[in-house]
Amino acid sequence: MYKTMTLLTFAVVLTACSSDDTANKGNEKQEQKVEVNVGEETTEWSSLPEYEKIMEVIDENNYTFQMMTDNQGKRILFLTNNNDEKIYKTVFVKSEKRLKIIKVNGSGEIFNDIIN
Fold first, then answer.
1. Could you read off the pLDDT of 71-87 as tens digits, one per residue?
2. Across the chain, where does the E strand assignment appear?
3. Can you tell me the distance from the alpha carbon of 36 to that of 32, in angstroms, rounded to the nearest whole number?
């Protein structure tokens, strides 16, 4: 009986002391804003493998990039205009190197292909 109570108390203490920080670490959303002019090189964003294709597909305006998700599986970016309106959403599936570009308030998906 004594051993059972000791083990039960020990299990409760361990459970109470555990932290969910490590479980939630991979699911954190990151948001970054950087002003990008089409045609200009921007070191931070131009280093992404999907950057060139995004710039090739979208129209020539100034956009602010916002990184919504960047984990082992995929990266999701929003491109907003000067009024912080979301114009494009990009989804890059890393394992397949598949890029999807979606025009948010318009024609929907405008690009969906594997990039080099």
1. 999 999 999 998 999 99
2. 33-37, 62-70, 74-80, 86-93, 98-103, 108-114
3. 12
